[in-house]
Amino acid sequence: MKSRQSRLMTAAAIGAVLLATAACGSGAGGSSATSGSGSAGSTAAATKGVALTLMMGSSGDAETNAVKAAAAAYSKQSGNTVTVVPASNLDQQLTQAMAGGSPPDVFYVDGATFQTLASDGSLFPYLSQLPYASDFYPALTKAFTYKGTAYCAPKDFSTLALEINTDMWKAAGLTSADIPTTWAQLEAAAKKLTKGKVTGLVVGDTLDRVGAFMAEAGGSYMNADGSAFTFDSPQNIQGLTFVQQLAKEGVLKFPKQVGAGWGGEAFGKGLAAMTIEGNWILGAMQADYPNVHFETVPMPAGPTGTKGTLSFTDCWGVASASKNQAAAVDFVKFLTQTDQQLTFAKLFGVMPSRQAAQAQYEAANPTSKAFIEEAAYAMPQVMTKGFPQVQQAFDSSVVGLSNGKSDPKTMLAALQQNASALLSR
To answer: Taking the domains of the chain in order of start, what are their residue ranges?
Structure first.
């Protein structure tokens, strides 16, 4: 979706806005640790005749109308009422509401702000109350786990995949047998596709894109229990070095180098034969470049055969200061039913966060198959408080990989140092 696309284009956008669309600790069961006024095992008693407020960011009218329709359906079924508040600046409006002591009962939470809200006691940890808590993709549940407690239900998600212009592919003499499943094949295809004004692969110049190659090299952003960063690992260096190799060869460029704002624009304008984006590119291509023929395939595996990509997700937050926690959790149960998730997917293009919806979603959305297949191994964003600002420095040096002004080892060492400082605060 476009809001997700914009958010992922720069780290600054991640730090500035809680976005509309659409994963470190234990699984969906969580511990019984408390947060704010409630615990994972208890809520306020009232569940009927309650007036709830849901605050959301939105990618546009389609999403706003879909959420309002879901709220109306829940109200009719439950006897509760839900007022939907589409925020023009969710981060700012949510902060003001919480500071004023009247937070919305339910609200969108993204990875850039989750840990801040969890650490200051603003979130109620309700996930273990959902009867299907273990059905959410584990990587997504991990996104909203803080100090061993899984807090909130993943709303939806997206992963990065490889988009290929099929007309350019055929013109270069490539066939289905050449679809890259390894780095070597990706490099070979990119070389054949680079000609004139067309670059074989155009990818965003942020950690939220090049980080996929780190995952494919077997790297990670943090260790298994989320207690330390691992940015400067040999695997991450190998992944970023591969990006630099392609950039120096001229078969990989960054959007600004080809006069585009993001990978999807370069792809749509025919400046890139391949790009790496999430499922939001499907709607963008249909709306802005309907005549471009393309195929979406999983990201190629790294040198040791490791499959990897990145995932991005939001959750349904419930305020710890809400006086209507039981009803709020009941509303979230409604919003995360498989039928409702599939309805959201149909109306505004997100992917369901529950595994039980996967088969139906794939059947109805065959072009999204690659994105959802990758959910099992996708690497989540960093959730540490303050990280968006740290990421900005890294992102600013990515373009320098193409001309030797930036060095992968130096970049990752700086990222490791700056990110680690956040943990000591």
So the answer is: 2-158+312-374, 161-309+386-423
Query: 312: Cβ–Cβ under 8 A, 6 or more apart, which residues?
Result: 4, 8, 22, 111, 157, 158, 159, 208, 278, 381
Of 190, 172, 170, the closest CA to residue 182 belongs to: 190
Q: Structurally, what CATH architecture does the domain formed by 161-309+386-423 represent?
A: 3-Layer(aba) Sandwich (3.40)
Among the four given CATH numbers 3.40.190.10, 3.40.50.880, 1.10.490.10, 3.30.70.890, the one describing domain 2-158+312-374: 3.40.190.10
Q: 250-267, pLDDT tens digit by residue?
A: 999 999 999 999 999 999
Contact, 126 vs 151, CB < 8 A?
A: yes
What kind and span of H or E run contains 119? helix 111-119
CB atoms within 10 A of CB 175: 8
- 1-51: pLDDT as tens digits: 333 443 333 333 333 322 233 333 323 233 223 333 334 444 444 677 899
Q: Examine domains 2-158+312-374 and 161-309+386-423 and report if their fold is the same.
A: yes
- What does 123-157 look like in DSSP terms, one character per residue? B---GGGSTTGGGB-HHHHHHTEETTEE-SEEEEE
Are residues 32 and 41 in contact, defined by beta-carbon separation less than 8 angstroms?
A: yes
- Report helix, strand or coil for 40: coil
Phi–psi pair at 306, nearest 5 degrees: -75, 130
Q: How many angstroms separate the CA atoms of 7 and 112, rounded?
A: 10
Do β-strands 199-202 and 272-277 pair in parallel, antiparallel, or remain unpaired?
parallel
Choose among 349, 337, 318, 334: nearest CA to 136.
337
What does the block give as tokens for 318?
Answer: 């419930």
Q: Output the pTM of the full model.
A: 0.79
The model's pLDDT over 121-160, given as tens digits with 9 standing for 90+, comes to 999 999 999 999 999 998 889 889 988 999 999 999 999 9
Q: Where are the alpha helices (DSSP H) in 269-337?
A: 280-288, 325-335
Residue 46's pLDDT is 60
Find the radius of gyration of the CA atoms of the chain: 21
Q: How far apart are CA 412 and CA 241, in angstroms?
A: 11
